[in-house]
Amino acid sequence: MTRVLSDLNAMVAGQGGDGSLTVVTLLGNVLAGRGFHLYSTRNVASRIKGGPAAALVRGSIEPRTGMGDTLDVFVAFDTEAIELSGHRVAADGFVVYDSSAGPLPSGYLPDDVTVIEIPFGRLAVADLRRELYKNSLAFGVVSRILTFSDTEAASVLEARFASRPDLVERNLEALREGFTFADDHGFTQNAGPLRLTDTKHSDRILISGNHAAALGCLVAGVRFFAGYPITPATEVLEFMTRHIGSYGGVAIQAEDELAAVNMALGASLAGVRSLVATSGPGISLMQEGIGHAGAAELPLVVIDAQRAGPSTGMPTKSEQSDIGMLVHGGNGDFPRIVLAPGNPSDAFELAMTATNLAQAIQGPVYLMLDQAVSQDSATVPPFDVSNVEIDPGQRLTHDQLDTLDAYRRYAITDDGPSPLAVPGMPGGMGLVTGNEHDEWGKVSTDPVNRVAMMDKRARKIEAVLDEMPTGHRFGDPSAPVGIVGVGMESGVMREAAERLIATGTPIAGLQPRTIWPVPHETLAFLASKERVYVVEHNHEGQLAQILASVGRDCATVTSILKYDGLPFTPAELTTRIAEKEAAT
Amino acid sequence: MTATYRPAEPIWCAGCGHFGVEAALIAALADLDVPKEETLVLAGIGCSGTIQNNMGTYGYHALHGRVLPTATGSWEANPELTVIAAGGDGDGYAIGMGHLIHTFRRNPSITYIVMNNGIYGLTKGQNSPTRQGTAALDAALLGLSVLETTFIARGFTRAPDQLRRLTAAALTHARQGHGFAFLEVLSPCVTYNDTYPRWETEHIDLDADDTYDPTDRSSAFTRVVALEAEYRIPVGLIYHDPSAEPGSFPNPASADIDPVRNAEAYSGIIDRYRI
Which of A6, A41, A194, B215 has its CA 20 to 30 A from that of A347? Predict the structure, then answer.
């Protein structure tokens, strides 16, 4: 009896360096070829090699940005993998266990799970002289379980190793050996226990939020990047180091985050669209520089790939506990914008918006990601670069500058931003400083000037309120109960809402994409509901606090929090909301 | 002609060494015919961190200790600018010291003028890392120990002609794209640490010594160490890398960011993610 799947969750786990990712990549390639959406994530320790490591993939007809509740297929290369993740396997799931590591530990798997035990590692070494071939062996077995044809499996494997022709033949040999084991266990070709439902192939890309955000900034004209390696933001540094030079730009790996943010300020001063990317600890170090961007009125885009804090925290685990720091951090009052994408498409779009908004407000704009959004990959439609807008803000051309009687760097204007000349332009010489200053940029503590300058800077935000990205809606808009969350909650909130609605609890969802300033649409959503659940990954309910402090009817807000380093599963979030609703 | 800010009057005390530094800088820029609009003076925090207000050029007031990374970013963004970083010994050698080492290593073609007075003047007289008798740091020795270093000089505000010459040499080194030009100036604080008399007797002019070879790094290091053991402060061109070549640098400030002209190339990146 073959079960047909429209939503497949698979995990491959072992020790770091085992090549778990390879099996998942191959599986993902088959799924994508069949037209399934992909979501892929990893679970790794903060070390180069070793330690429990897992790669997960979800293939689904609906686009999903999060794993499902349980695993349909679990490949475990050691006993620790079973001990750590055995409980995640569905009761009707399949476990492929590498018995070279020892006998299957008992008590970790649900009772009715089908287990295929094969000593992959030992066989790979004995027959193929290389332990890594165990991955192709395992993929052979998985292919048969999922009723992929042998040719389909072989072709994705060949494509995977296209750049290493010396490895193709041995891996194919391993794959065929995997098929033989599958035959021995009764999983013959075209007659496996699971099968993917039929769907049409669509043109898609598989990309992480970090890469999508970096690309969005590049496309919107960022030509200077400075960073310092930090998990989970390093991919932005790597992307920029690899690509920006081809577009006339410069990427610098600085000696620390203090240098990185100040280098970016210096580049911004010279008129180049500038970006820094880091995680919470780096934001802490950059805080003074970001405030300086606010005071000195320098455009700056800051990507924060949040990880579990405080302090060094859990570098590879996702959290949303920098929200308060981004919204309120830094000494003194200065205008800033915080945008929050929930998937790679959002990340690309909001990165472009952030880059333009930084120019428009001549100040700092945060792109707030979390580890899951940053590092997990999802399939999305290919990004459209045919309609990209570059907003120069108040940047003056030489001709415009020539028509001015006088150039004042901080000229008071009705909407806030001042006309901007950059070094190299005759007649545009100005003084830029983080001290309070007069219109010319000269230091001033005059009380009338102080108030005028503070108000001028604040006006810059009001002027762009209408350009702020609007949120994504889901669920039943007329429901009296609402759910709000950002980033990594975006996908799982949708799934929870679908389930709640299906079981008779109407719920309306909003994924705001502008966190700060709190946009009118978010306040209107809060005001229109009897109760709103704010879902977030932190201990203090930081987003809820901000919404409650700005919102008019805060009593409706109830936090649903998680801070154990793991994402919500759809079932977990559904239950948490259902329990609260039942108690209402 | 568009009017710009009127250069400020210096805030310094009468007799402050910084007047000499500013005069030398203005004179050297004039000697080299550097247009004001192509000059960017970035200064740190402290008494010295006001020099940019007095220049009539583009000016920037950096965060405390961060003038070097900021100046590096400006120069990386537009290497056609004459980028001059300036600051005091507290700004450069205490809170900002980490950046100095990495700037020597990175060797951007900017000029860095440190006004060393051995004291925190603006906060009224705390010791700085170069205060005599407190295990004083010598940034020249530090620079010599970094292999990428290409230019190290020290001036004294009591020797204005030499200071003007050294400032012009530093600017020329950087403007020709030879790398990082480091110029420390003994610039006494007459209010909190009047070192004029002491430095008058302790300074020794290497430029006047025919036996000194500023292109030989190891003998320069040996000589500076030996002089300092005798409580003498070497002044003049301390080290100049004769093999420094003008580099060729990207210019992000003139990069084409037009999305239409770049669309095909951007699509090429996106294609890499197709699945």
Answer: A6
How many CB atoms sit inside 10 A of residue A224's CB? Answer: 28
- The residues pairing with A337 across neighbouring beta strands, listed in sequence order, are A365
Query: Does A62 share its domain with A153?
Result: yes
Shared domain for A126 and A152, answered yes or no, is yes
Distance from CA of B29 to the nearest CA of A (A): 15
Residues A94, A18 within the same domain: yes
Question: Of the candidates A42, A54, A83, A88, which has an alpha carbon nearest to the alpha carbon of residue A68?
Answer: A88
CA distances from B14 to A120, B10, B122, B162, B163 (A): 83, 10, 14, 22, 19
Claim to verify: residue A13 and residue A146 sit in the same structural domain: yes
CB-based contact, B73 to chain A, within 8 Å: yes
Interchain contact, B275 vs A205, CB within 8 Å: yes
Task: Please report, for chain A, how many H helices and E strands are present, in that order.
Answer: 19, 23
Q: Please provide residue A486's backbone torsions phi and psi, each rounded to the nearest 5 degrees.
A: -130, 170
Query: Which CATH number goes with the domain that contains A505?
Result: 3.40.50.920
Contact state of A422 with B253 under an 8 Å Cβ cutoff: yes
Phi (first) and psi of residue A287, to 5 degrees: -55, -40
* CA–CA gap between residue B140 and residue B136 (Å, rounded): 12
What's the first-to-final CA gap in chain B, in angstroms?
A: 57
Of A326, A347, A380, at which residue does a domain stop? A380
* CA separation for the pair A433, B62 (Å, rounded): 7
Q: Does the residue B6 lie in any domain?
A: no
CA–CA separation, B114 and B182 (whole Å): 8
For residue A124, give the CATH number of its domain: 3.40.920.10
CATH code where residue A309 lies: 3.40.50.970
B3 belongs to a structural domain:
no
Give the domain CATH number at B153: 3.40.50.970
B245 lies in a domain? yes
Domain extent, residue B138, equals 18-271
Query: ipTM more than 0.95?
Result: yes
**Segments forming the whole domain that contains residue A402:** 398-466
Q: Please tell me the distance from the alpha carbon of residue A561 to that of residue A503, in angstroms, as a whole number.
A: 23
- Residue of chain A with shortest Cα separation from B9: A442
B107 shares contact with chain A (CB less than 8 Å): no
Q: Does B102 touch chain A (CB under 8 A)?
A: yes
Residues 400-459 of A with CB under 8 A from B: 401-402, 404-409, 422-435, 440-443
Chain A residues within an 8 Å CB radius of B41? none
- Within a domain: residue A544? yes
Digit-by-digit pLDDT tens for chain A (584 residues) are 799 999 999 999 998 878 878 999 999 999 999 999 999 999 887 777 778 899 999 999 999 999 999 999 999 999 999 999 999 999 999 999 999 989 999 999 999 999 999 998 898 888 888 888 999 999 999 999 999 999 999 999 999 999 999 999 999 999 999 999 999 999 999 999 999 999 998 999 999 999 999 999 999 999 999 999 999 999 999 999 999 999 999 999 999 999 999 999 999 999 999 999 999 999 999 999 999 999 999 999 999 999 999 999 999 999 999 999 999 999 999 999 999 999 999 999 999 999 999 999 999 999 999 999 999 999 999 999 999 999 999 999 999 999 999 999 999 999 999 999 999 999 999 999 999 999 999 999 999 999 999 999 999 999 999 999 999 999 999 999 999 999 999 999 999 999 999 999 999 999 999 999 999 999 999 999 999 999 999 999 999 999 988 876 666 899 999 999 999 999 999 999 999 999 98
Same domain, yes or no, for A87 and A160? yes
Look at residue A392 and tell me if it is in a domain.
Answer: no
> A505 and A522, same structural domain?
yes
- pTM strictly above 0.95: yes
Q: Please tell me whether residues A344 and A212 are part of one structural domain.
A: yes
Copy the structure tokens of residue A421: 């000349």
The answer to whether residue B94 sits within a structural domain is yes
